[in-house]
Design a protein that fits this description.
The structure holds 2 protein chains of 2 kinds.
Chain A (H helix, E strand, L loop, with lengths): L1 H10 L1 H19 L34 H37 L1 H16 L2 H11 L6 H11 L2 H15 L2 H8 L4 H37 L10 H10 L8 H29 L3 H7 L1
Chain B lengths: L1 H15 L4 H13 L4 H15 L5 H13 L14 H36 L4 H13 L4 H15 L19 H37 L3 H8 L4 H27 L5 H7 L4 H10 L3 H29 L1 H5 L1
Classes of the chains: A mainly alpha, B mainly alpha.
Chain lengths: 285, 319
Amino acid sequence: MLRVIRDLLKHDGRFRVAFIFLVAILIMSALSVVSPHDPGRTFRVPADMPPSLEHWFGTSSRGQDIFWWMAFAVRNSLFLGLMTAIVSRIIAIFVGLTAGYRGGFIDRALMSVNDSFVVMPVLPVLILLSFLLKGSMSLVTLAVILGLFGWPWDARLIRSQVLSLKERAFTQTAVYSGTGAFRISLNEHLPFVLPVVFATTINNMLWSIGLEVTLSVLGLSNVTLPTIGTAIFWANQHQALVAGVWWWLAAPVVIAIILFLGLYLLFSSVNEYIDPRTRLRRIGG
Amino acid sequence: MVVFLGVTLTFIIPRFSPNDPVETRVSQMMMSGGQVNPEAVIHLREALNEMYGLKGSSLEQYLAFWGRLFRGDLGPSLSTFPTPVTELIARAMPWTLGLLLTSIIVSWVVGNLLGGIASYYTESRVMHVIDVLSQAVRPIPYYIMALVLLVVFAYFIPIFPFSGAYPAGTRVEWSLNFVLTVIKHSMLPAISLVIVGMGGWFLGMKSLTSNIISEDYVVYAETAGLRPRRILFSYVIRNALLPQVTGLALQLGMIFNGALIMEVVFGYPGMGMLTLQAVMANDYSLIMGIAIFSIIGVATSVLILDLLYPLFDPRVRHQ
């Protein structure tokens, strides 16, 4: 693992940039542990102060130090992305492996469910759902809901891989030596599928963090919880720009750009490292 | 199929929800109304139940739900009672449509043209710059781009207004003056959509055409001495267009969702703002109407796309 990272750092410019960005993001989210302020409390510092040495990102109209608030926000957004990715990965791996290996009726049933999820417009359904859960929506619930909607593309990808693995000699050997279907999927096929899973994880994180921002800006998530989305929500609520508090909007924007670019560049360089052929799919998709 | 599933989902979801919309509404009214006698509450509850179609068994409800949908009846809006939901949507739709249609088409045309040219003239310096820029812009969501533009061009260099589609207090009319202000107000949202969209189309087109350039017929055309421009437009770009048309159609279907955050950020009076208002006012029927509307929108465009495919690609026709 470490050697791979060192190799990529040496040869891939995109990976270098991604590495720097993501390390910065991680440091920032780690800093939230030593934050002098509780993110839930307002009016701890003078309101509407421009960025200075004391308050790096300035302070908001709600009297919060934006730097420390964003530290929590980054941590929460990252957590949400990871959590969503894990939930949807589990579903995708399960569906992909079963559909690919079992084939026949199970495959057709699973894939028709899959197809409906692929074409389903997620956003309106999510808006409706989170509207009804308004108030009782925690970060974990949101992550699970997003996870339930985020698996179909990747399940398809995994299935197509398994379909080709199934025809290979080693699968046949395993079958003739009496290995059960479950063990074949888990021990023989899963290792081949894992690189794909890893690459799609990053994409899934981007997707879920983006959706969180959408829902939060509409005020549909738990807005007292600091995330990148709720930061924009509050700045918008207080009409930060009209009031001249531009740093309140700039902070989440800059951090979102660093996070998104970092994850995307990591995704594309890892993807290429795993399989050069995906280069085309990535750009086309 | 998608419509069926989507509508069924919008039917099922509220029934699993811990918050009963009727009860929420009733308690809301009781709180605001002060003294209410119990009989009136019962009446109100019945009326609301009727309105939400919560009468009878689940199956009956489900069928009634479809029946109303076919008549184009999405029920009255709760916050601006008794204006029907459909009317509110109809009022917001033109704004969203106008903004998104223009920017999506502009970014599609420009992005594809540049993409085709970039892959054909690989040594061009300008194209290389555009390439790098598109790579950098691609992962950034359009709303982040919108916020960047907003801070820069409305706050630091105030050439564009902060928000709205027209200045508050102006009458909506078909005069040159009004149209000009509307265009000025929609410039920033449009630009952010175009920039991000263009990056995507550019990269897509480039990867598509880079395959085609090495195909036999292109090499043949080159040896036959056709002019490069002719090869580029009638051989290379034309053959790469089909997946891009698919993408365009899918995007156009998504129009019904609007660029939600974009409109919220810019205070643009389209579907996004309508959604925000509905959320703020706890207008359940309006949210549901918007959700159903956008699901149907996406599904319809997928269907139309399937029907139109043979027109674009003769290979599909022959199968």
